[in-house]
Amino acid sequence: MRKRNLALAVGAGVAVAAAVKLLTRVAGVNWDDVASFVPHSDKSKFIDIGGVRIHYQSFGDIANPAMVLIHGYTASTYVWNTTAPQLADAGFYVVAVDLVGFGYSAKPRDFEYTIKAQARMVLDLMKAVGIDQATLVGS
Description:
alpha/beta
């Protein structure tokens, strides 16, 4: 019984800590304060997609076949900082996107943080930057 109560208390403590962290996180980062520390910041762009400010980096010639790089959970465009330029050098137009809530994209509390909503945002981003067709790569 004591072990069970201890396990419940620890679990509750972790849940409370996670909730506090999520509710008190910074809504965004001032780009001008951090741009000099961001790999390939000269390739960074921001666009409004559905009322949400999205950060992405683009490499290569837009006339080349497009490749959209999507980071994994808890990551950002940073995971592509070596790969994206290499793919551009290999003849692709590369767009690495920070999903909503990650990296330098906005982190709205009211966004529907689902795979479907993130996929919709990526499709809207592709349309907005003039990509009709692309190879999608995820990590």
